[in-house]
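Section 5: illustrative case.
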């Protein structure tokens, strides 16, 4: 297992419930170690196992719930 920790901007965050929605979905995704969304900066910091997950998949998961990850 190889841990990667990265931070990316997310488009579409307008309130605190957006933040918790994104965090909830990411944190229950297999391969995610920890995901945090910063409301003030509109960025997500995600630590994940890059043998189980990659940026493409993360981008799709975020898109599925209505937000856009900028990579
Ligand atoms: Cu919201």
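Designed sequence:
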């Amino acid at each position: 297992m190889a841990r990667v920790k990265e931070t990316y901007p997310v488009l579409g965050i307008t309130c605190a419930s957006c933040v918790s929605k994104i965090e909830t979905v990411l944190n229950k995704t297999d391969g995610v170690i920890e995901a945090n969304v910063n409301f003030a900066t509109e960025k997500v910091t995600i630590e994940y196992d890059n043998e189980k997950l990659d940026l493409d998949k993360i981008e799709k998961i975020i898109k599925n719930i209505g937000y856009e990850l900028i990579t």
